[in-house]
Amino acid sequence: MPRPQPAELIRGAAAALVAGALPALAFPAPSWWWLAWVGLIPLLFVVRAAPTAAQGGGRAWMGMAGFLLANQYWLFPSSGPLLAVFAVGIGVLWFPWGWAAHRLLAGKPTARQILIAVAVLPSAWVLAEGVRSWHRLGGPWALLGGSQWNQPATLAPASVGGVWLVGFLVVAVNTALVGAILLRSWRAVAPAVVLAVLGPVWFWWGPAPVPGSSVRVALVQPGDIDDAAARQRASESLTEGLAGEGIDLVVWGESSVGVDLADHPDALARLVELRRRVGADVLVNVDAPARNGGIYKSSVLIGADGPRGSYAKTRLVPFGEYVPLRPLLGWATRHTKAAGEDRRRGEGPVVLNTGSLAIGPLISFETTFSDLPRRVVRLGAEMLAYQSSTSSYQGSWAQPQLASMAAVHAAETGHPAVHAGTSGVSSAFDARGRELGRLPASDEGVLVIDVPLASRVTVYDRLGDWPILLSLLVLTAWCAQSGRRSWTGARRWRVRSRAGGSRSWTGLRCRPREGPP
Predict the structure, then answer these.
(1) Alpha-helix residue ranges (DSSP H) falling in 325-386
(2) Before 126, cis peptide (omega within 30)?
(3) Using CA atoms, how far apart are residues 455 and 359, in angstroms rounded to an integer?
(4) For residue 412, what pLDDT is reported?
(5) Which pLDDT does position 512 carry in this prediction?
(6) In this structure, are residues 38 and 89 in contact, taking their beta carbons and an 8 Å threshold?
(7) Phi, psi of 322 (to 5 degrees)
């Protein structure tokens, strides 16, 4: 086979970059959720048009690099050219997806190949997302299933298989629609329709949360304030206005307190007095050097007599809060806004109790992970409480993207979730992921919501990340079957070649020998 020309490779990569960036519009801020169900079709056609399966994998690689660049463009001011390196490095995880897509969809696929593709391609996609979600690789930001955060009906499968199952269905629908186009048959659209309606069917006829009481929660959003002391004073001023409002819990955003409360009794006393005036516990967030050394980010619940308990952040942002392999990569701090000093990790999730409400606190980057809310719910949390600060990305898509994940985890765990952003976006969701209230990043103030504590034990809570395991089994089975068929076909060809007197076993046809051997 002739070697591909550079111009051909460049055109294919450029088309893949553009096609791969398209699904980013399904995420906040645009939130064109419907686009996710058809947004992969252009990339699939670009991949299947590649001359070889290897080039198809390469186009998928470039396509996902384009997706990451479009979805996380807001990292460029702080990371610079490293963002492109990150996107290309993570994009390689989708090479198997592109390779499989070319093998199954190129040329004139049969109906059987399309059905296999509907199972295999979502599996390859979910596995790539599962690997990418490792926190040391940047975490599960912008998983495809998360695009459905504002549509409780299409998000409903998250209660069965987490965000992974939602993403699986989205990729399966895109693949089925491509198959229908290739087969040129309206009847072939039926699988796509069936897959698309599974979520709404489960939402309307599946088990509903068990009714319960409700709590009045106030989310304090002081805005983009650089000085830690001024930021705390602004949060205190907004909280004071809640006296007499019948509030059950006040939640401040990340880094709302800039001193270690154990070393600053005056700051602690001021918070305790504030709690007494308001009549509700206050969940603050401390970002300061601790007495025993090191910098922690901690959620601290302030009660009438002092702290009721605390939680130290366990999942840290690579480069943002620590530098991996600092002796080797420490140079990045001189050219980017990477952490000059590593934050310390906590020991694990905890549940904080006000006396009438059990809270599962998680902090900023941890909002993107699905395993952490499952763990705090199993520890007895009645409500998830997220605290974040995205002032470094003020006015970008980062803020609504982060806040949207609270809806996904509410649906996954079957428990309500609130998200307090120091500079936005603050939001609240019920146990099915339905939005109860929102305070945009451009606003400053307090969002007060009556949060129903209706909840249920979901299938996902019981079984965990089973879609990832199922995807691994499906992809492994297909690869084994394809390998066996290829080996069997090659063996038969060699046998026929020997019988015909061919000198070559490599696929090149040679004339049989003339005359006696």
Answers:
(1) 326-329, 332-335, 371-378
(2) no
(3) 14
(4) 98
(5) 36
(6) no
(7) -160, 160
Binned at pLDDT 50, 70 and 90, residue 6 comes out as: confident
Question: Would you give the DSSP letter of residue 28?
Answer: T
**Alpha helices per DSSP H over 208-301:** 228-240, 265-278
How many C-beta atoms lie closer than 10 Å to residue 121's C-beta?
28
Contacting residues for 415 by C-beta, under 8 A, at least 6 apart: 360, 373, 377, 381, 382, 383, 384, 431, 455
Rg, the chain, Cα only: 26
Distance CA 289, CA 301 (A): 18
Position 28, amino acid: P
Contact 152, 434 (CB under 8 A): yes
Q: CA dihedral defined by 206, 386, 374, 118, rounded to 10 degrees?
A: 60
Contacts of 125 (CB under 8 A, 6+ apart): 94, 97, 144, 167, 168, 171
- CA atoms 466, 105, 116, 458: torsion sign: positive
pTM: 0.90
Q: Are strands 295-303 and 281-289 parallel, antiparallel or unpaired?
A: antiparallel
Q: Report how many helices (DSSP H) and strands (DSSP E) the chain contains, helices first.
A: 18, 12
pLDDT digits (tens, 9 = 90+) for 456-488: 999 999 999 999 999 999 999 999 988 776 666
- Cα-based distances in Å from 260 to 28, 46, 361: 35, 54, 18
Q: What's the CA angle centered on 354, arms 379 and 349, to 5 degrees?
A: 30
Whole-Å CA distances, 482 to 125, 450, 477: 19, 55, 9
DSSP 316: P
Distance (Å, rounded) from C-alpha 107 to C-alpha 103? 9
Q: Return the bridge partners of 302, or none.
A: 282, 307
Spell out the residues 6+ positions from residue 102 whose beta carbon is closer than 8 angstroms to its own: 47, 48, 50, 52, 53, 55, 56, 57
Residue type (1 letter), 127? L
Single-letter amino acid code for the residue at 148 = Q
